[in-house]
Design brief:
Elements lengths: L1 H15 L14 H14 L4 H18 L27 H9 L7 H13 L3 H4 L7 E2 L4 E5 L11 E5 L2 H7 L18 H14 L10 H12 L4 H8 L8 H16 L7
Antiparallel strand pairs: 1-2, 2-3
Helix pairs in contact: 1-3, 2-3, 5-9, 9-11
């Protein structure tokens, strides 16, 4: 995410300050520039994407201040707002997920494919699925047990337990023959590379949606709510400490129901 933040800032300079395209002195980064940068991020990202990138960029600025590279904080007083209760990212419907599973193409990465499908059916973040080892799988009880990287050491709800059916266990596969349970289940390349693979895959499947890796987590939550799961169950499966962060999915389901009703032929008396 820090790399993405730096890349976006370079793109911003190239478009709005071409004279600084190949480098800028720290003292030339001003509050006005940061306000323009936020507007640029919001024009390029959906949902909480712009806010998340700006938060990472501020970490870079604070690091520079702490190490005497910069004297003032140009981000002070500059905010990038997003309504966290609105799900702006696209989700894949069960029918679209089946189209994705049925779609194969030349030079596809089988590990990316397996891991993304696993996230669609378990709701894991990329940072968690990439670190899964066979030690996380309880084969006897058909359970996945892991600590969320995002909240490990900060929340009592960082531990997550997810039941696995036979299909998911087949995606995981058996532990290595040498018995090394510390081996990674999905040997994945970088986050950016995985997202590019997913976008290519979605396009080949004929799905006209902007799908990032994190959309798998959103799709999982929306689809199980749509199938009748209660909000507390969904919160538990996602590893949320409360219901606040889960509520945006119920709003997304309500919107889907409204769209379904509105898709019916107009009733005329």
């Amino acid at each position: 995410m820090v790399q993405i933040a730096l890349s976006r800032f370079k793109d911003f300079l190239k478009e709005h300050y071409p004279m600084y395209e190949f480098g800028i002195k720290p003292e030339l980064i001003t509050k006005d520039m940061m306000e323009q940068f936020v507007a640029y991020l919001q024009s390029r990202s959906v949902g909480e994407g712009a806010k998340s990138i700006f938060q990472r960029f501020k970490k870079i600025i604070h690091y520079a201040i702490d190490h005497d590279v910069m004297l003032k904080d140009p981000c002070k007083g500059v905010t990038c707002k997003a309504d966290s209760q609105i799900l702006r990212k696209d989700v894949l419907s069960p029918e679209e997920i089946q189209r994705l599973i049925a779609c194969h193409y030349d030079n596809e990465n089988p590990n990316v494919r397996r891991a993304f499908i696993f996230c669609l059916y378990c709701g894991l973040r990329f940072c968690d699925v990439k670190d899964l080892t066979y030690k996380n799988i309880d084969y006897a009880n058909k359970l996945l047990k892991f600590e969320q990287n995002k909240t490990k050491g900060h929340s009592a709800s960082s531990g997550v337990v997810i039941p696995l059916n036979d299909g998911l266990l087949s995606l995981v596969g058996e532990p290595p023959a040498d018995g090394n349970k510390d081996a990674l289940i999905f040997n994945l390349p970088s986050y950016e590379s995985c997202c590019k693979s997913v976008k290519r895959w979605v396009k080949r499947a004929g799905i006209d949606k902007h799908i990032s890796w994190h959309c798998a987590r959103h799709s999982f939550a929306v689809n199980i709510l749509n199938n009748g799961a209660n909000i507390k169950t969904v919160a538990s499966l996602l590893g949320h400490s409360g219901l606040k962060h889960t509520e945006k999915y119920t709003r997304a389901v309500d919107k889907l129901k409204e769209e379904a009703i509105n898709s019916l032929p107009e009733l005329k008396f």
